[in-house]
Amino acid sequence: MDETDTLYHLVGLPWVVGAPFYPSPDFAIRSMLDMAGVTSDSVVYDLGCGDGGIVVAAARHYGAKKVVGIEKSKKLCSIAIAKTRGLKNASIVEADYDEVDLSEATVVTLYQSASENARLKAKLLRELSRGTTIVSHDFGIPGWHATQFRVFRDHRRSYRVLVYVVGATSAPN
Question: Quick one: which of 117, 65, 115, 120 has its CA closest to 91?
Fold first, then answer.
């Protein structure tokens, strides 16, 4: 049993919770953050951060200025908080992301269904500034055209990463 398995066991959380939670593999997280252009100047918000994998990577490995993970599951928050302990540039907020102001974000990461992404469009357009990057794992944002799109494969399955830039000619205005 590794450290993550131990955390899941301690809080009584199976690998799949409710509307399924699937931890993103490290290479998918790296691909998302690379394609989004995360740097030390980035302010990253992860909507539905789950166990905090993206938050940890953006804060520790990319040195983002600020990383905020938003998760409404108390159990997943416990795991994410444990994983981010000691990272001064990372925080986890236990909340519904609909209730959190995203306006300071320069990068928003998502792993939501296409229908949830469609529902989120109005919030993203209302709160995000022109030039903000939105990167989605596996599911696109219906009606929007990605500025970047890649398919990655590991030995078990393929992963899609889609990038949108608010105000870009191929993305929403």
Answer: 65
Q: Give burial (CB, 10 Å; 0-12/13-18/19+) of 137.
A: buried
pTM for this predicted structure:
0.86
Give how far Cα 92 sits from Cα of 28, 38, 61, 149, Å. Answer: 21, 18, 17, 28
Class in CATH terms, 3-165: alpha beta
CA distance 53 to 45: 12
**Which residue ranges make up each domain of the chain?**
3-165
Residue 154 confidence class, pLDDT cut points 50, 70, 90: confident
Which segment of 16-25, 53-62, 82-91, 146-155 scores lowest on mean pLDDT?
16-25
3-state SS of the chain: helix, strand, coil percent to 5?
30, 25, 45
